[in-house]
Structures are given as structure tokens and as C-alpha cells.
Amino acid sequence: MDFREDQIERYSRHILLQDIGVEGQERISRAKVLVIGAGGLGAPVLLYLAAAGVGTLGVMDGDVVDLSNLQRQVIHFTPDVGKPKALSAKEKINRLNPDVHVVAYNEFFTAENALNIIRDYDFIVDGTDNFPVKFLINDACVLSGKPFSHGGILRFDGQTLTHLPGTACYRCAFHSPPPPNAVPTCSQAGVLGAIAGMLGTIQAAETLKFLTGTGELLTNRLLSFQAKSMHFRTTPIRRNAGCPVCGEHPTVTVTTLHEAEQAVCELKKKRG
Amino acid sequence: MAKVIVNGEEQDISLPVSLIELIRQNQVSQPDMVSVQINGIFIVREKYEETIVKEGDEVDFLYFMGGGR
Ligand SMILES: [Zn+2]
Fold it and tell me: Which chain A residues are closer than 8 Å to B32 by Cβ?
């Protein structure tokens, strides 16, 4: 890949880094990254990956921009209220960096489309806001041998874990979704807007570290922080033999994902 | 009193104590919203009552965080 002069200038602060250089920037520019959710976490992830010149950015979100999103979802602006988030995000990315090829999916990540969509990408970022989809992203990535970044935020706190094939997965630590009635979401519990930025930029940094082979990723450890005290901690996490997807007796397999997909399809048929 | 390490910090507790009691003592308001490992081994939720915490155990409470939008 030969960079144009304006690209050498645009990416000069990356190229200056010994760990990245021209070669690392080439890897970034050739990479395909899928960001699921163009909201609180997805916004900073997308903006930083776009600025970094990631070759292809998939943006997946089936929702539209709401006024209550703008307190933290910094890729969407006031005139975007009512617009599909995937399109609003694509417009900003195109203006920030025309080098980036954006694929906008104006739909949600489901058992039906999961395996097909992630197949095209080198790295996947979880920027979603509910447990069923967080577990689905984990399962689809583990079963497809895809690396991904898990991220979760609540009130003043955040957590993130990076998975590479063979390392501990989200289910190794969290097994299965908590009972739905126990779960506060951001819409019920609230979240300090900047927390999304704090966690999202960590996920973006992990993505760029992965793409360039730099440093040590957050594999086999969970980073969590509590912003009220600004206390950060990494907890070692091991592969768990009892893990439902990567353990010794998995109950989540490609077949069960397909079954979930078929159940969805049949429900749709019934609804006509 | 005995020392156990909870989320990386030493705590003095009187033994014997079950995991569910330790969870209560640490004011985890919703035990359903926490995943627990002792010395790096995850404990399934059904075993919180019968699991006994020993002196020197490293206990980690990992909170479920479902937000992102
Ligand atoms: Zn696992």
C-alpha cells in the first residue's frame, strides 16, 4: 500500500510511534472493523477508528437518534434527531476521514444475521446496551474464531475485556445473562455521559493495538473502573472449563445459534 | 478474625463465613448482578450458599454491566 502525501501527513502521529510506523498504519488502513451499536460506546469507538484511518468500518444499529442520546452519543448532533443512527454515524465518519469505507447496517445484531455479518471483519467491537446481544456477540465471535472487545457501562462504572481465539471469553466470567428483572439498563439507571467516552476510547485503543500487534491486550483480564473514586482495576480471568461456549461441554454451538435463527424466522412467518 | 482479599483489598472477617454472607457483608445490593470468583475459579450462582470462604482466599466480585448506548 502506497500512502499519498496527505495521508502521510494525516497519520504522521501514528507513523512517528515506533510501535506503529508506516507498517502499522498500513495494517490499520487495510483492516475491517465492525462496531455493533452506534451509541454511547460506539460513538467514540467509531470516531477514533475513523480518525485512525481504519480501512473499512461496519456500523450496525437499527435505532434512530433520540434527543436523550445526545448527552453522551457524541457522533450524533442535534439536527440528527429522528435519523437512523447507522446513517448519522456514516455521515460523520465520511466527513472526518474520506479514506474510510463505511458499511452502514440499519438493523440490529441478531442470531439470524450474526455469523454472516461478522465473517467479513477482522475485529468486532461490542457497543450494545443489553445482555442478550452482549452474550450473542460473544457466542458468535467465539464460535467464528473472531477477536472482539466487550464493553459495558452503568451509572459511573465501566468494564471491558478483549477476546482473542483461545483466551477467556465473556461467558467464562459471566456465564449467562442475569435474570431480566434484576437488570438496570442505562435508560433506567442513568449513566454519566463521559463514562461512555472513557470506556469507548479504551475499546478503540484495544482495537488499534490488536490491528498493529502493539503491546499487551486486555486478554484474560477484565478491566473495570469506578469513576466516582477513579479506581481502576484489572482482574485476572481464566478460561473456564464450565463455560457454556468455550468450556469442556458447550451448550452454545453453531447449531443452537442456527436454531435460534430459525425460531426467529418462523415467528416472522407466523406474523406474516 | 481472619484476612481475605476482596477485589484486591484485604478485609478482616470472622470465620466461618459462606460466600453468600460475604456478598451481603460487602453490601452487594443485587447478588444476581454479580459474578464471583474465588482464587481464580468461578462459582456458579447456585453454590453461593454452600461455598465456605477460607483464610487468605482471593475473592473477586465482577459486576454485570449491560449498558453501552
Ligand atoms: Zn468462555
Answer: 178-179, 182
